[in-house]
């Protein structure tokens, strides 16, 4: 793993990948580098204009790349179901699902289905998407699911009694809980896959501190110009690039030695550098918490994982 870089990605010819939130940032870089190595990449993005522009930009950067844009809004379960149904009709198989899209530290809000926005988009949307695509993953040899979490999961464990932050809302606590949920989801998914003897690998990754649009979205929504300037200065002088931030995701998605339920991040204090095994809070490995979150997620989304019962 030491010194691993994008040029070390194995040949992906013949593989199909879905990357959520791939119109910018580490999602775009992930999609571009997978396409560069021969994968057909589906850019699954909420904004149609930005998604189509990203697909055009990708082809301009990687001539001959096989890519397409398909709209997916993780804040609308109807959109998730429509995406999954359309994808299965068109492709029928899936080698790699990268659950990358996310929102961070937003003012309090709710998704179209009434979930707190960060929990709804970051966890529940991806939980539903993965569940609906699982039949294709199970019948595709060597398939993987990579879910992008964050070191900020360490801010807070989930509160199973208040998953939608209906009590006191604190944006960073809510974000940390959603990122903990990503890791608990990976933990339980890996356990269930192992229980049926599947070779599908469920792993997680995080980008460290990478300069993307994610950091500025919340403050821009509130018109906090001073805070936005502060964040932009941090991104410029302290963050690593989106290209570097995508490396842990790309490693988890393609490296031959990736283990189920592993968590990959930058080597240097989890902040920057080449991919390495990452520290994670002990609560993200709690079997009972992962099972309870899974059960609640099935209830809230109405998506049951066929073939992956407890």
UniProtKB/TrEMBL annotation:
The keyword Membrane does not apply. Keywords: Oxidoreductase. Pfam families: adh_short. The keyword Transferase does not apply. InterPro entries: NAD(P)-bd_dom_sf, SDR_fam. GO terms for molecular function: oxidoreductase activity. Belongs to the short-chain dehydrogenases/reductases (SDR) family. This is SDR family NAD(P)-dependent oxidoreductase. It comes from Streptomyces spongiae. The lineage of its organism: Bacteria, Bacillati, Actinomycetota, Actinomycetes, Kitasatosporales.
């Amino acid at each position: 793993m030491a010194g691993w870089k994008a040029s070390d990605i194995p040949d992906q010819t013949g593989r199909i990948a879905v990357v959520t939130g791939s119109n910018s940032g580490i999602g775009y870089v992930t999609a571009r580098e997978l396409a560069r190595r021969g994968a057909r990449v589906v850019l699954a993005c909420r904004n149609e204009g930005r998604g189509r522009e990203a697909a055009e930009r990708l082809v301009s950067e990687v001539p001959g790349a096989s890519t397409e844009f398909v709209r997916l809004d993780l804040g609308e379960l109807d959109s998730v179901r429509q995406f999954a149904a359309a994808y299965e009709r068109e492709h029928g198989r899936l080698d790699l699902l990268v659950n990358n899209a996310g929102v961070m530290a937003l003012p309090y809000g709710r998704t179209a289905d009434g979930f707190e926005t960060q929990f709804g988009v970051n966890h529940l949307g991806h939980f539903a998407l993965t569940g609906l695509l699982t039949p294709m993953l199970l019948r595709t040899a060597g398939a993987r699911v990579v879910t992008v979490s964050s070191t900020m999961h360490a801010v807070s464990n989930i509160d199973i009694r208040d998953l939608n932050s209906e009590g006191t809302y604190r944006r960073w606590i809510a974000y940390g809980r959603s990122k903990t949920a990503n890791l608990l989801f990976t933990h339980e998914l890996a356990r269930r896959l192992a229980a049926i003897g599947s070779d599908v690998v469920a792993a997680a990754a995080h980008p460290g501190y990478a300069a993307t649009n994610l950091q500025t979205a919340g403050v821009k929504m509130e018109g906090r110009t001073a805070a936005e300037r502060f964040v932009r200065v941090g991104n410029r002088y302290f963050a690593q690039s989106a290209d570097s931030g995508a490396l842990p995701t790309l490693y988890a998605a393609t490296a031959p030695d990736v283990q189920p339920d592993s968590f990959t991040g930058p080597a240097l204090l989890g902040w920057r550098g080449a991919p390495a095994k990452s520290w994670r809070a002990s609560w993200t490995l709690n079997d009972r918490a992962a099972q309870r979150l899974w059960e609640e997620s099935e209830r809230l989304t109405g998506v049951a994982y066929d073939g992956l019962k407890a």
